[in-house]
Design a protein that fits this description.
Structural class: mainly beta
Order of helices and strands: EEHEEEEEEEEEEEEEEE
Helix content: under 10%
Strand content: over 45%
Shape: globular
Amino acid sequence: MSGNFTLSAKYSRDATRTKWWCAVALVAAFAVAASPCGAQAPPGEIPVAAPPQLDALVLARKYVQEYFEKFSDLTCKEFVTQIVLNGSGHSIYRENSAYDYQFQASSASGSLKFNETRETRNPAYRDPARTLLVTTGFASLLLVAHPMYETSYVFEPAGVEAIGGVSYTMIRFVPVPGASSPASLRLRGKNYALPMSGTLWIDPQSGAIVKLEAKVDSSLSDLGLAGMRSEVHYAQHSFRDPAESIWIAESAVIDVDTPRQHWRNLHKFSDYKRFNVNIHEEIGQLP
């Protein structure tokens, strides 16, 4: 299974009616391309003369690159709530599920690829008459700040905001028209570049991204997508042997709108572990 940020909506009717399938997938470009796109900068290349207001972004690019290199195989427990909302924003249906989740990243020949697996631990009751949104692959959203996509967005300072009593630098990003994107919309077997815009909350000392908001507006309305909004919060977790710490996704909220539907998915991640053939060590969240 591909480990990219993926959304799909499935609607089943009873045997006397037809079945309808509509899949909307945000797919990291590296997963489908053998080589980086022309608009991307070479891996690891950081602008030498970056404006002082973007110092935090320079650190974030280095942090994200090291994140995918050093923490390429993680497992955790994932809890998902899938919600259908009415026109007033009130919940009219919900399902709860639990999974064992594993994320792997690898790089070869200048490309970065993901693999994601989710094994059901606690399946939800499925109402076949309901349309539900399926969302996965949140790690790939960090590619917005990866060095290979630094020419795909215009970044600008957006002030400072305190979260939990700690001040973080806010960096706003908007897509460069015609530039490559780390995400695409897959609809009926065809890929469409997603013009994501949003904001990063960055630790100015380490470059760690502690919060990420991204959205796609109505520019894709001709494809049936009225809007998409995502908000991911990260928490610091620690490893043992060797002692290391990293900010990893702790929760995510995804809203997707079509002219007739409004879905909201809530994700919670816990009990992180690092796994490979020699090491299987628990990760405990730092207080």
